[in-house]
Write a sequence for this structure.
């Protein structure tokens, strides 16, 4: 198997996990922007499923479906070399709010 090229770009997840994305982009765009939008969409879908009469366990599964991504992106913010107390606190607070909402 050939060795990867020296100028090969890291994968989508690896770039975030290894701090190769600028912290403002990771924090504001990935976590607060897209993450919040996805969480709100899944929460709305879960409420719609409940309103449609589906079992509550289905709505709970849908509501918590984004949790693995939330944990990943918060972990990526915490691991980022430029992360400080403010960004880590914001990430932890966001995770708490998104888990409930």
């Amino acid at each position: 198997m050939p060795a990867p090229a020296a100028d090969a770009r890291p994968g989508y997840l690896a770039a975030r996990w290894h701090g190769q994305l600028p912290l403002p982009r990771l924090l504001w765009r990935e976590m607060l922007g897209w993450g919040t939008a996805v969480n709100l969409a899944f929460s709305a879908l879960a409420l719609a499923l409940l309103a449609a009469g589906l079992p509550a366990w289905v709505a709970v599964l849908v509501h918590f479906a984004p949790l693995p991504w939330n944990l990943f992106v918060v972990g990526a913010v915490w691991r980022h070399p430029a992360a400080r107390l403010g960004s880590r606190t914001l990430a932890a607070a966001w995770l708490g709010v998104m888990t409930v909402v």
Remarks:
- Residues 21-100 form one domain.
- The CA atoms of residues 31 and 73 lie 6 Å apart.
- The chain has five helices and no strands.
